[in-house]
Design a protein that fits this description.
Elements lengths: L2 E2 L7 H10 L4 E5 L5 H9 L5 E5 L4 H10 L3 E3 L5 H10 L3 E2 L1 E2 L2 H9 L4 E4 L7 H9 L6 E4 L8 H5 L15 H5 L3 H13 L4
Helix pairs in contact: 1-2, 1-9, 3-4
The structure holds 3-phosphoglyceric acid.
The site of 3-phosphoglyceric acid has 12 residues, from loops.
């Protein structure tokens, strides 16, 4: 899943089309730029994609993301206020956890699918594999420090559903509006699943 930091709303539609064309329809737009909500709204109009809002930290973020058209949310960690806001707004959430205790607390709230973040800094694939031994009922989407070179380490784990990262749409290529190159990166990422 591409983790997107988009500065210009005008880039939203061509970027979404480039990623969808490369086989990656689930798009996480991080709320890290002033344009992010406009980017979500623009991407939500593109056929074939499923647009979510990332970097949800507060209930206000959740409400704004939902109003902009996000179909799911992603958060680096989780608080009661955040998960309650997602329930109130009916926004499916991929909440972040980095430790067994965090994962267990989220499991108590019913989250059987979680984001493992920051993946590489938290011990990488070996740490996630170790967490999976006692907690096999949780599926993870690791993000943070993942790229083409190490994604397979994660995707091979039985408790990993997908992996996310910014490497498929790097800042330099988005700024250069290098949509074809982004489609190529998306294809390469998609191919990780079939090899
Ligand atoms: C995230 O929010 O998931 C991470 O910031 C993505 O990390 P990356 O830029 O290392 O892929």
């Amino acid at each position: 899943m591409p983790v997107l930091v988009v500065r210009e709303a005008a880039d939203a539609a061509p970027l979404a089309k480039a990623l969808i064309a490369g086989g990656l329809p689930a798009l996480e737009v991080t709320l890290r730029t002033p344009a992010a909500l406009d980017v979500i709204a623009a991407m939500a109009e593109i056929p074939g994609g499923v647009v979510g809002a990332g970097t949800l930290v507060t209930p206000q973020d959740v409400r704004a993301a939902k109003a902009a058209g996000a179909e799911f949310g992603v958060s680096p960690g989780a608080t009661d206020a955040l998960t309650e806001a997602c329930l109130e707004e009916d926004l499916p959430l991929l909440p972040g956890a980095a430790t067994a205790s965090e994962a267990m607390r989220l499991l108590e709230r019913g989250y059987t699918t979680q984001k493992f973040f920051p993946a590489e800094a938290s011990g990488g694939a070996p740490a996630l594999k170790a967490i999976g031994a006692p907690l096999p009922q949780i599926r993870f989407c690791p993000t943070g420090g993942i790229s083409l070179s190490n994604a397979r380490d994660y995707l091979g784990l039985s408790n990993v559903l997908c992996a996310g990262g910014s490497w498929v749409a790097p800042d330099a290529l988005v700024s250069a509006q290098a949509w074809d190159e982004i489609t190529t990166l998306a294809r390469e990422a998609k191919r990780l699943l079939s090899v």
